[in-house]
Specification:
- This protein is α+β, with helices and mostly antiparallel strands.
- Helices cover 23% and strands 46% of the residues.
- It contains one helix and ten strands.
- A hairpin with a 2-residue loop joins β4 and β5.
- The longest helix has 34 residues.
């Protein structure tokens, strides 16, 4: 009888765990969308990166995103509370950094930054975690207004 109860609990946990995680991710995305402010939601990018060992290159999430000339976009990064590392969101036009959630000169973190798009091209979105630590975060791309 004890074996049956244990087996039933094990199976229940196996089926419920993915549902709970998906719900948690959806809730995190919803909270980050709200943190972006009064803007029009376009896309979300949930990220889970493992940490890097000493001498290893830190893992980075990369995503090409199409942005269109004459629009102001807002990029918002919400690092999970349980995350070991603090997230950094960067936007590149080819090899040129055009926006970041972290100011390297002052050491200041920002949850969001706005980007006035001057040309319609694919930009590269980078998400990493400081010091190559393991981390989990959600990035949100929103449309603020047409310029």
């Amino acid at each position: 009888m004890k074996k049956r109860i244990f087996f039933f609990l094990f199976l229940s946990a196996a089926f419920v765990a993915p549902l709970v995680k998906a719900q948690t991710e959806a809730q995190r995305i919803d909270l980050c969308v709200k943190a972006a402010g009064d803007v029009r939601f376009l896309s979300d990018y949930p990220v889970q990166l493992s940490g890097s060992g000493s001498g290893e290159k830190a893992p980075v999430f990369r995503k090409a995103i199409a942005l269109h000339k004459g629009n102001r976009y807002r990029l918002t990064l919400c690092t999970d509370e349980e995350s070991a590392g603090e997230g950094v969101l960067q936007l590149f036009d080819e090899n040129k950094l055009v926006g970041s959630s972290f100011n390297t000169k002052t050491g200041t973190d920002y949850q969001s930054f706005d980007f006035d798009c001057r040309k319609s091209v694919f930009y590269i979105l980078f998400i990493s975690f400081k010091e190559g630590k393991e981390g989990s975060a959600v990035a949100i791309l929103s449309h603020v207004k047409t310029l």
